[in-house]
Amino acid sequence: MSRLVVYLTIAAVVAAAAEGFLRVPLQRVRRPNGDRRQISARNGDEVPLSDPQYVANIELGTPGQPIRVVLDTGSSDLWVPSSELCDSGYDCNIHHVFYPKKSKSFQQEDQPFSIQYGSGPVQGVCSSDVLQIPGLSPMKITFGLVTGEGAGILFDNTTDGILGLSYLYQSTISPSRALTNCINQPLFSFYIGQDGGEVIFGGMDSKYYHGDITYVPLLSTSLFPVSVPSLSIGDQTITNDVGIAIVDTGTTGLAVSLEACNQIEDIMQGYHCGEGAPTLTFLINNIPFPLESKFLYDENCNLQVTATDQTWILGLPFLRQYYSVFDMGNKQVGFAPAVQA
User: For the whole model, what pTM was predicted?
Assistant: First the structure.
């Protein structure tokens, strides 16, 4: 399987921002058909999906064509759906698609790409065009254009595509060289609120959090993995053998081991939508991070925890409670209690 090479880096984004900060609003949107699956590209498992997703608006091409993307710390790829999908049952009245023939600056490359998901691959061809984000100078990038073949996972998604924010660990561009040569502050921060949110490239905003930001080191520069020695609920230790969890803005649930998932479900069965339930506490780098039970449920009272036999994932339930700072330059991620609107 080939891997998509993306020439958009966080360094380039921040370097192009007029005052060193780029604020990108996140829009809260709902899935169109009630399907409750989201696929994690990191481990191929199905992760439960709460009704809302959080997307950013970008434009591709000349003139710009609107696309809604998930800003995803769990990947380093950018891909969008092609207009070819409209002839394959893809609802182009709900989704934005990219029309290559309408862009004066579009160039198709010969390299195919394929990214394996739990329900099948996303496949297409690498292409290049101009990316436009408000507050950012237009830049030429390479991205994946998803065609009809292997596009099944797109049909149930509210979003149009994914813009990966992780280290380009499988890219032909050296992440460290790109970052150090372009900016002094290669970091970005996420606020995920009840009605929307914001990503700030190049800094953070104290109006979104309480107290101080607690930083923990990354275990590597492949995605954003942190050490999680244990997980407990109330005064009961669920496991002392977690190991690693990925901090992932692109996953709308929590992914834990089957044993931990079963224990959480058993305990939560005694509470309606988590009301009055004991607090779930992740020990991250030996620092406790409590997660209130209300963040474990979506608006339809569905528990947003699933089982995985691979790396654990700290997705949106955790990131709704904690303002998060992804400090790529210092190879660390920071958390502070988020302001709840």
Answer: 0.86
